[in-house]
């Protein structure tokens, strides 16, 4: 059991070199993409990534903000999914 879940989740986020984002396309299908390490975060509720503003990711996020991000700790084979 985690003593401080936000701190434990933050450590997984900070150690993850790759994360996975998921979003919904125009037809309602889920799309998952691998992303490089996040650029910055404010706690576990605000996390910034870099991508080209003309990418489909940006288009779909603007149309439907239902999404998730998954960070993995490869060493201990554990992860955290944020919605």
Question: What's this model, at a glance?
Answer:
This protein is α+β, with helices and mostly antiparallel strands. Helices cover about 25% and strands about 40% of the residues.
List the helices and strands and how they pair.
Blueprint: H1 5-15, E1 18-24, E2 30-36, E3 40-42, E4 46-48, H2 56-63, E5 67-73, E6 78-82
Antiparallel strand pairs: 1-2, 1-5, 3-4, 5-6
Task: Describe, in plain words, how this protein is organized in 3D.
Helix content is 23%, strand content 39%. By secondary structure, the chain is of the alpha+beta class. Strands 2-1-5-6 form a 4-stranded antiparallel beta sheet. Strand 1 and strand 2 form a beta hairpin. The longest helix has 11 residues, at 5-15. The mean pLDDT is 91.
Mean pLDDT: 91
The biggest beta sheet reads: 4 strands, antiparallel
Cα(first) to Cα(last) distance is 21 Å
Strand order of the largest sheet: 2-1-5-6
Order of helices and strands: HEEEEHEE
State the share of residues found in helices, binned by percent: 10-25%
Q: What is the CA-based Rg, rounded?
A: 13 Å
Helix count, DSSP H or I runs of 4 or more residues:
2
Number of strands: 6
Alpha-beta classification:
alpha+beta
Low-confidence stretches: none
């Amino acid at each position: 059991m985690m003593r401080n879940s936000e701190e434990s989740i933050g450590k997984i986020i900070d150690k993850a070199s790759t994360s996975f984002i998921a979003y919904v396309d125009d037809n309602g299908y889920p799309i998952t993409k691998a992303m490089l390490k996040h650029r910055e975060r404010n706690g576990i509720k605000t996390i910034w990534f870099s991508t080209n503003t003309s990418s489909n990711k940006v288009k779909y996020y603007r149309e439907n903000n239902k999404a998730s991000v998954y960070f993995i700790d490869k060493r201990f084979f554990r992860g955290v999914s944020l919605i």
